[in-house]
TrEMBL record:
This is Lipase domain-containing protein. Pfam families: Lipase. Residues 5-75 form the Lipase domain. Residues 69-95 are annotated as: Disordered. Belongs to the AB hydrolase superfamily. Lipase family. Keywords: Secreted. It is found in: Secreted. Transmembrane segments: none annotated.
Amino acid sequence: MFLETVACDHTKVTPYFIESIITPKGFYAYPCPNLVSYLIGWCNPEDNEYVLMGEHVSRKARGIYYVKTNPKPPYAQGDPRRRRKTTRAPTSNIL
């Protein structure tokens, strides 16, 4: 179960990308240098560090980014800056 939560599931890349084209929510990622830093909780992004991923990704985005997703479709969780203000995010997977 733990590995399913933190592992990158490359088999979902195509469904994630397709959903990124059609969803109004969007897949928002944030930079973090490595998985260990992410798991420890050392990556606390500023609001301006989030990047919309998928079809609409900025060509300026560089580095390692982490995307929280829902375990089943629809995968997109939307803008985390909005979620933070309203409710707690559901259990997630990492792309």
